[in-house]
Amino acid sequence: MNYKHVHVIYFSPTHSSAKIAHAIVEGMGAVSYSESDLTYEMPESEEAVEKELTIVAVPVYGGRVPDTAVKRLQKFVGKESPVVPVVVYGNRDYEDALLELSDLLVQQGFTLLAAAAFVGEHSFSCSQYPVAAGRPDQKDHDDAFLFGQHVLEKLEAYPSLEALPPLKVKGNRPYKEKKAAAPSAPLVDASRCNLCGHCVDICPVGAISIQNGEMISDPVLCIKCCACVKECPEEARTFPNPFAEYLYKNFSARKAPELFL
């Protein structure tokens, strides 16, 4: 099979998933590609992805695919399109997320070709408790690039989608239960915040607003991606979290990508 066009779909609040997806595409040497960025809004209508090699990349939250990403991905329907699901996790464990994403894409009509789990800086990583800080780094990029080459080689080795062998990925069914966390959101240091509104623009769920000259974060809407914390130009936002110290102490050793071909 020969697919010269690649379609990239991603939900990537802190850009890690997007970086890995783009590195995979680079390795494929695609003649052309298009992308659907689901980070900031739900697609208005259903979109058919027809006869396109597709990369779908999302972060892992608590061992699962974020609900926000699931809802937005359900707007895409695959038609004769091989797909490569990719999850990016914060160096702890991706648990059932890759299986969940694979199952979702099959339900949406895509055909599984390959899959992968890469590491990105943990949402709760901070200067005091760094967890996979700076990842994906150059080594991750190189691994993703090589993975893209291998995926393309596999695709070209089979005459049709029907000829592809079943793909087994790590994970369990039923998936790990999503435990409801107490509503919380990053804190704002009013002495540093200049109300530039950058955090408002980059919040994937519209949880941040400026009201009466104050920056307000809705703890019910917040998904704790911490994009606003990592990208605040004044470093005015923090997300104090006791889990960060636990992650630092137990999951600082570098983990390598896990690839399924």
UniProtKB/TrEMBL annotation:
Q: Which segments constitute the 4Fe-4S ferredoxin-type domain? A: 184-213, 218-242
Looking up Pfam families in the UniProt record yields:
Fer4 (PF00037)
Q: Keywords, A to Z?
A: 4Fe-4S, Iron, Iron-sulfur, Metal-binding
Which PROSITE patterns has this protein been placed in? Answer: 4FE4S_FER_1 (PS00198), 4FE4S_FER_2 (PS51379)
Q: Does the keyword Transmembrane apply?
A: no
Can you tell which superkingdom this protein's organism belongs to? Bacteria
Record-linked InterPro entries = 4Fe4S_Fe-S-bd, 4Fe4S_Fe_S_CS, Fe-S_Ferredoxin, Flavoprotein-like_sf
- This protein's name: 4Fe-4S binding protein
